[in-house]
Design goal:
Blueprint: E1 3-6, H1 8-21, H2 26-41, H3 52-60, E2 71-76, E3 79-83, H4 89-107, E4 109-118, H5 124-131, E5 136-141, E6 162-166, E7 174-178, H6 185-194, E8 203-204, H7 214-219, E9 221-222, H8 228-241, H9 250-257, E10 265-273, H10 284-296, H11 306-318, E11 320-323, H12 324-334
Parallel strand pairs: 3-4
Antiparallel strand pairs: 1-11, 2-3, 4-10, 5-6, 5-10, 6-7, 8-9
Helix pairs in contact: 1-2, 1-12, 2-4
The chain binds NADPH dihydro-nicotinamide-adenine-dinucleotide phosphate.
Length: 335
Amino acid sequence: MTSRNLSLTEAHDLALSCLIKNGCDDDNARACADRMIEAEGDRCHSHGLFRLPWYVSGVKSGRVNGHARPRLDRLAPAVIRVDGDNGYAPLGQRVAHQPLVDLTRENGIGALAFTNMYHIAAIWPEVEALAREGLCAIAVTAAYPYVAPAGGIKALFGTNPMGFAWPRKDAPPLVFDQASSSMARGEIQIAARDGHMVPETAGIGPKGEATTDPNVVLAGAQLGFGGYKGASLAMMIELLAGPLIGEFLSLESLADDGGRGGPPKGGELIIALEPARFGDADGFLAHGEILFRELLAQPGTRLPGARRFQNRAETPKTGINIPASLYDEIIGLLA
Ligand code: NDP
């Protein structure tokens, strides 16, 4: 597969102009481009430029509002909601960050519900940004049904990721962000595009048959990680990012798409905690470090997030590589 090397600035310019050319205003395009290039910069390609043609198709079809103006409401002393006005998630997420920080500092705990927005992507940016403010954060989101319940063969749950971040002194926050499926959907799509096989744990074919062919998994159903345990986490996330906040279940989001194959509409729940208000204001940071020290003392370990932070340090110098076919597709969208 031939690839094309781009600096992060070139990649950002490309994403920004492509979104503006295809119907987004500057605020919406910039928020989406920032998020995509943030993902590329961490070499999280499944949430980078790979998504750009899909984003463009959502706006061009008229389904996604490229001129969205997210609206924030306070629902309870420690609960806010951001209505995304039918736009892509990144602008709403940007608008919500500081109000959530303020709310959490005021109450010790703050919850934020995102509704009425399209494609909540990787969720480490939200939780990492909160941990950089000294808060601890948990985020969950649901999307289209791709994962079969334990014992079943028909997709019911989204690949429903959960993100967690913990602040550290003099070090980047501890951040993990993982799907409740055995593999992220985007990774399976990339394997199909690039002609690679996937592990047998990734999913099953339409009749429940075992397979390592990503195309067969895409036609069948993905599997939760760790069998029924991952499936139960996916179910919990469906409830928290759906019914709890008045948003779609994954299967409702797919029905809303009506077979067009566009980006999913759905919700996200973030819970932020102010550690200084939980009883050990002076000690919690040093106490957490004991755990990290002990973990890292074991050969073969690393902290979640460390790979991304390493990539983030490298990509401003190396640039990023994207498939030449994707580059050509984006240039086509600019024409
Ligand atoms: P991975 O399995 O690649 O990684 C999950 C987490 O585990 C990361 O935080 C990773 O850190 C950490 N990790 C990996 N290897 C190790 C290790 N050896 N030791 C310690 N920690 C480790 O992620 P997924 O494939 O599950 O998800 C990829 C992305 O896709 C996520 O950002 C997720 O939010 C997103 N996604 C979004 C969905 C949506 O509907 N919006 C649905 C599903 C997934 P590191 O990054 O440093 O490797």
